Amino acid sequence: PSTTAPSIQPVPATFEAGIMPILQTTCAQCHTGSGPGTQHVRLETAEQVADNSSDIALLVGAGLMPPWPASPLSAPFQHDWSLDAEEIAAVRAWHEAGAPLDVDPATGITALADEVSLAEVDLELVPDVGFDGDPSYGDEYRCIIYDPELTEEAWLLGFEFVPDQAEVVHHAIGYRIPASQRERADQKNAAATDGDGWTCFGGSGLGFDEIFVGWAPGQVATRFPAGSGLRMEPGEFLVIQIHYHFDTDAPKDRSSIRLDFAEDGSDLDEVYLEPLLAPAEIPCSESESGPLCDRETALAENVADYGLRGAPADFILALCGQSASDFATMTDGTASSACDTPIGYEATIVSVLGHMHELGTSFRMTLNPDRADEMVLLDIPEWDFDWQFNYNLAVDVALEPGDEIRIECSWDRSLRDPDLEPAYVLWADGTDDEMCFATMVTRSLS
Fold first, then answer.
1. Has residue 352 been placed in a domain?
2. What is the C-alpha separation between 416 and 300, in angstroms, rounded?
3. Which of 329, 330, 120 is nearest to 224 (CA)?
4. What is the mean pLDDT, run by run of 10 residues, along the chain of 446 residues?
5. What's the pTM value of the predicted model, to 2 decimals?
6. CA-to-CA distance for 133 and 297, rounded, in angstroms?
7. Is 111 part of a structural domain of the chain?
8. What's the number of domains the chain is made of?
9. Are residues 188 and 128 in the same domain?
10. CA distance 277 to 417
11. N- or C-end of the chain: fewer Cβ atoms within 10 A?
C-alpha cells in the first residue's frame, strides 16, 4: 500500500467570515468610491466581487494584487497591504468553489480604514488654468505655483497630491519656496503662453527651494506621525514640478494638492525630507552600437534637452566619489550602482521612498551597510514603476551622526523601448533616461 500522505486541499472560506475581511482591509480603499483602482474594476458589492472572482484569484495568486513591492527583508511598515499564504489560499479556494455568497449580493464592501486618501482636508489647491501640453513635447517638466496664502506660521500634518490626467502625469516633486522668491515666480508664470507654470528641469528654477514631497504612480496620501508636522513660514508657497510624458494625447491637466494643517503647532516635532542620490550609468550592451552609445555624446544630448540641472550625471558621480570608468564593464545589458550618504544629525526615520524609471529591476536602501548594526530599510527585489510607495515605518529607527544610508539600484536594458536608438542611458529627466533616487522623511528629536 502507498505510504504517500494525501494532499490537503484548503477548505473554501465563507464569503462573510473569510473573504470580506480581506477585501475590507486590503482592496476596498482602492476599488470603491473614488479610489484609484476603480478605473479598472469596482468591488463595491458582494456581487461585483463574485463576478470578478476569476481575475481576483489570478492576480492575488500571482502576487500582483494587492500591490506591495517591498520584500520581508525591509523594515516593518505600517499599512502593509500584502497577503499571507493562508489568505491567498483562501481567496483561490473560494473562487475554485464557485465564488459562493452567504450574504445578500447587494451587500456593500467598505474599507475598514482609508489609507489612500487624506482623511481631513483643510485646503485643496487647484491651478487656475491648468497646463495645455503638446504631444510633440514628449517629456515636459512644468513648475506650477500652489499658494496656501499663509499669513502666519502654519504646521502641515499631511498632504495628498492628486493627479488630474493620470495617463500623462509621470511623477511630481513639490518644493517649498520662501516668500522672497514670489515676485520671481510670478514673472516666470506670467511669461507662459500655454497655461499655468513654466518649463523647468532639475528643480523649480527659482533657487532657495526645498523638497517636501515626491509623488509617483501608486503613491497615497502622506500623514506625519502624531505629534509632528512640517513647519511653514508666513508667505511661503509651494511649487510642484510635474513631469508630463506625452505619447499621442496631451489633455489639459489641473492636478491638485490637498493640505491638512494643525490648529496649533506649538507642541509638534518638526519633520524634514532628505533626498538621497546614486549614479544611473547604463552603458550600451556589446550587441548595440551607434553614436549615442558614446557616453559624452549621450550626456551632451541630455544637457541640450534638459540643462545641467536636468542632466546631473557628472555631478552625482562626483558626489558619490565615482567615475564613469566604474561602469565601463557593465556591457551585458544590465547595470547597477550604489552610493552612501553620511548622516550628521540626530533624528528618527518616519518614512522612505525609492524612485527609478522603467528600466529598473531592483532597489534597496540600507542603514549602516556592512556594519554590525546594518538594517535594510527598504528592499524591492522586483521593481515596478507603477507602484512607488512612500513606506511609513512601524518601528522607531534612530539616526545618529556617523551613520550612513546606502541606496542601490539595478537596471536591465532589455526593458528599453526597442524602437529607440541605442544609447548610453544616464541620470536625466526624460522618461527614457534613468534615475536612482530616494527620499527619507525624518523627525527631529525634541
1. yes
2. 20
3. 120
4. 47 84 87 77 94 94 89 92 90 94 93 74 92 81 94 94 86 90 93 86 80 76 89 95 84 93 90 94 97 98 90 97 98 98 95 93 98 98 87 94 98 96 94 93 83
5. 0.82
6. 28
7. no
8. 3
9. yes
10. 25
11. N
CATH no. for residue 318? 2.60.120
Domain that includes residue 353, residue range: 274-444
Helix, strand, coil percentages (3-state) for the chain, rounded to 5, are 20, 30, 50
Length of the chain measured in residues? 446
| The three grid cell numbers given for residue 353, joined into one nine-digit string | 521612498
Q: How far apart are CA 340 and CA 286, in angstroms?
A: 30
Examine the domain organization and report whether 210 and 327 are in the same domain. Answer: no
CA distances from 430 to 46, 139, 305, 397, 426 (A): 43, 6, 9, 34, 10
Distance CA 380, CA 74 (A): 8
- We report the CATH number of the domain holding residue 199 as 2.60.120.310
Q: Is residue 104 in a domain?
A: no
C-alpha cell at 273: 525630507
Q: Which of 216, 245, 267 is the last residue of a domain?
A: 267
Beta strands in 135-224 (DSSP E): 139-146, 154-162, 169-177, 198-199, 210-215, 222-223
CB atoms near residue 348 (< 10 Å): 18
In a domain, 62, yes or no: yes
Q: Domain boundary at 267, 286, 304, which?
A: 267
Q: Are residues 86 and 147 in the same domain?
A: no
> Residue 18 has which C-alpha cell?
473569510
